[in-house]
Amino acid sequence: MSDKPAADSVDDAAPLPPGAAGTAPVLEDSTAEKSVSEDPSGWATEWAAGLPGRPGFLIRRLHQIHVALFAEECGGFNVTPVQYSIMSAAALQPGLDQNELAVAVGVDRTTLANVAARLEARGLVRRERTPKDRRLKRVFLTPEGQALLESMARPAARAHQRTIEALSGAERQAFLDSLTRLVLAGNAYGRAPLRMG
Amino acid sequence: MSDKPAADSVDDAAPLPPGAAGTAPVLEDSTAEKSVSEDPSGWATEWAAGLPGRPGFLIRRLHQIHVALFAEECGGFNVTPVQYSIMSAAALQPGLDQNELAVAVGVDRTTLANVAARLEARGLVRRERTPKDRRLKRVFLTPEGQALLESMARPAARAHQRTIEALSGAERQAFLDSLTRLVLAGNAYGRAPLRMG
DNA sequence: CACTAAAAGTCAGTATACTGACGATTTGGG
DNA sequence: CCCAAATCGTCAGTATACTGACTTTTAGTG
């Protein structure tokens, strides 16, 4: 990670001509690709026709990039993005049960339980059964967890900001708007929807 | 997955008012969030101030959604998005070694090796050492793998298309442009960069 | 009250993604 | 030629993400 280009040089670069890759972008099923990217304006045809022309591919890549940036900014805390999200939710709404936490964060209940258990093992959260409903486990942040959360606020925010800083202000906003639209539209797919009401 | 809203109703819905959640969006460190979303126009303040206001959070959610859509469209093939990408790359450039494949697809070399090994176990790819460089393993698609790839082309494309279909044509293009810009800008972060040249 | 259905959390299993380290092989420089 | 550095693939380990199934508990209905 120490060999990444300086932020300035990356930001200044016009969209790189990706066709120059020693490993050429992968071409395939151009007919299907055209239906996805009906207007290839602004990017090389080869790029659009290959793997990078697939939305899912780009989304996976950006997610990888974000996770790497988060690790760089928050590495010293040994907290992952999902752990941070779960702790954030637990801090704001102490006592949510695991399932409520899962839908607040958009994480599968199995994943939530696994992450919470590991956070509990680190003394960052506490999980309690309640006499009112013995099926539930309610989650509380410990003082140690709270302190960690607070000390991470800036680095975490920096990671998020760096993920999208290559866009200008208006583009950034438009991008986030679209991203939000897509997330809202597809929210019910999969096993980890966000609660909408 | 059978309880997802009809595509029409989701598409027609104006951006949902997310503040209505029984589990309220999580609020935190508003000062840092403001620096990320400097212009909150078009989305509720509560949404912007909470977890969904974090770019990385939305990116994770959209990735989850995409993977779920891919599973829905391609479930019958028992092929994941990453497997499909690797097979696509191997089909277009037969004989790339594993590392070349990893940088063509943007996958960590360890992940690539693991996925390739499982694909090989299924008879979909063949991995060969070469006398020219005994460190390498070159990857070839088998006839069975080729056939599977071809039969998956349309469903796979549909999954990608559905991931972004909530946006209009121009918005979609702008979104993909921005996504590409961000991927290119952050490409070197992490251990799985795409080869640029 | 009795019974069915639903919910919560857990379990075992599979897949992707990353980390640092390692042995074998190749490359590059003196 | 020799040796150090680099590269490739693998290894063991950790984390997230999902699947279907299961036991316990609660909710709902007749």
Strand content of chain A: 5-15%
- Order of strands across the main sheet of chain A: 1-2
CATH topology heading of the domain at 80-147 in chain A: Arc Repressor Mutant, subunit A
What structural class do you assign from the helix and strand content of chain A? Answer: mainly alpha
CATH class of the domain at 80-147 in chain A, please? Mainly Alpha
Ranges of chain A where pLDDT stays below 50 over 5 or more residues in a row are 1-44
Q: Write the element-wise H/E pattern of chain A from the N-terminal end onward.
A: HHHHHHHEEHH
Radius of gyration of chain A, whole Å: 20 Å
User: What is the terminal separation of chain A in angstroms?
Assistant: 41 Å
* Greatest interface and its participating residue counts: A-B, 107 and 105 residues
Q: Compute the average pLDDT of chain A.
A: 80
By oligomeric state, this entry counts as homodimer
- Summarize the main sheet of chain A: 2 strands, antiparallel
Shape verdict of chain A: globular
Quantity of strands of chain A, as a count: 2
Number of helices of chain A: 9
CATH superfamily of the domain at 80-147 in chain A: Winged helix-like DNA-binding domain superfamily/Winged helix DNA-binding domain
Query: What is the helix content of chain A?
Result: 55-70%
CATH level-two architecture of the domain at 80-147 in chain A:
Orthogonal Bundle
